[in-house]
Amino acid sequence: MHVPGRRRRHLLVLTSLAVVLAASGGATAAAKPQRADPLQQGVDAIRDTGAVGVFAEASSPDAREVARAGTAKRGTDRPMPWNGRFRIGSATKTFTATVVLQLVGEGRMSLDDTVERWLPGVVRGNGNDGGRITVRQLLQHTSGVPDALPRIAALNSAAGYRAERFRTYTPGELVETALRDAPTMPSPGDEWSYSNTNYVLAAMIVREVTGRSWADEVEDRIIRPLGLEGTSVPGAFPFVPGPHARSYASFRTDTDTDTDTGIDVTTLNPSMGVGSGSIISTAHDLNRFYTALLGGRLLEPAQLDAMTTTVPAPQLGVNYGLGLGELPLSCGGSYFGHLGELLGYHTLAGVTRDGTRTAVVYVTSDGGPDTQKAMNTLVDRELCRGEES
């Protein structure tokens, strides 16, 4: 989850969404923006919580609406780009789970395979045992494998960021780092515990099954078929390509008595997020991806059913499937989606169960204490608009 002892940071994670309780392919990226209420009102409300820049897109079978607020660079009046790219953080996990489930549907692997079956000897030590952990448990966050990210210096302090923002991590290094700690639960499947290492391991398994990198499989199975022109898997490349807004992160100092705010963290080698949080995309592309996914274009019914079969995630107050969170709607029922963050860029993507309505919002800074709640409210309101009539 978040890094202990630090300010409210959601390092590549599906953050606490308990506050929720209190794209279509028809339009192109060049479509003329529509600054219509209530989407614009929701975006303005997020900006008013302290976010530097905000952008949102909502789509339905017959409409696409976009709205923006704030600025693309602090201290300027440059507006947010209409189809800007940003680091999507943990929304990457839905892409990874989709690739794994496609391989399952092709009969090349099983959700009940153990990690040891594909990665012999990789998950061992300090009580961790890959022979007792299944692929399903990795994708579901019920494996008990510890999280490596609390040990990644670039994500946890301003000094660490400045010193190590260009550092490259291999998947093996990330797993070794995580396994310095004991499992987070007595036995796999006993509890629910969020860990980015689960998806690092999933990416490693994709390579073993296919003989090709996780990045190549995401490109060939999702990005290219859906025509996601603003989406990329950057590997160790530290810059955001194309139009984008700068991102800003707040770090708590080591004394925990002061906050170092407003650090520009746009430049970052995202290799610590392989499989779990490194993808760059746009709001439009994410809407198209989630529309295609829940609409049945990427997975066969059996695999989509497995993805959307959830278990309680008490740490979050929601339910979690395989790379998807299930969240309640204020108008009744629920929706699927994922929240992500990678140093300053925060996003929330949501899609109705039938894939007919989607909403994506992202901000370019940590904002204030009410920023996440305002993002949740925007997505909920947009997905419920189809129920108003």
Question: What is the topological layout?
Answer:
Elements lengths: L38 H9 L5 E8 L2 E8 L15 E2 L4 H14 L9 H4 L5 E2 L2 E2 L5 H6 L17 H7 L6 H8 L18 H14 L3 H13 L21 E5 L6 E6 L15 E2 L1 H12 L6 H8 L2 E3 L4 E3 L4 E4 L5 E9 L2 E8 L5 E6 L7 H14 L5
Antiparallel strand pairs: 1-2, 1-14, 3-8, 4-5, 6-7, 9-10, 10-11, 11-12, 12-13, 13-14
Helix pairs in contact: 1-11, 2-7, 2-10, 6-7
Account of the 3D structure:
With about 400 residues, the protein is α+β, with helices and mostly antiparallel strands. It has a single domain (about 20-385), classed as 3-Layer(aba) Sandwich (Beta-lactamase). Helices cover about 30% and strands about 15% of the residues. It has helices spanning about 40-45, 90-105, 115-120, 135-140, 160-165, 170-180, 195-210, 215-225, 285-295, 300-310, 370-385, and strands at about 55-60, 65-70, 85, 125, 130, 250, 260-265, 280, 310-315, 320, 325-330, 335-340, 345-350, 360-365. The strands form four sheets. The chain has an eight-stranded antiparallel β-sheet, with helices on both faces. A two-stranded antiparallel ribbon has the order 3-8. Strand 11 and strand 12 form a beta hairpin. Helix 1 (about 40-45) runs antiparallel to helix 11, helix 2 runs parallel beside helix 7 (about 195-210) and helix 2 crosses helix 10. It is globular, with a radius of gyration of 19 Å. The termini are far apart.
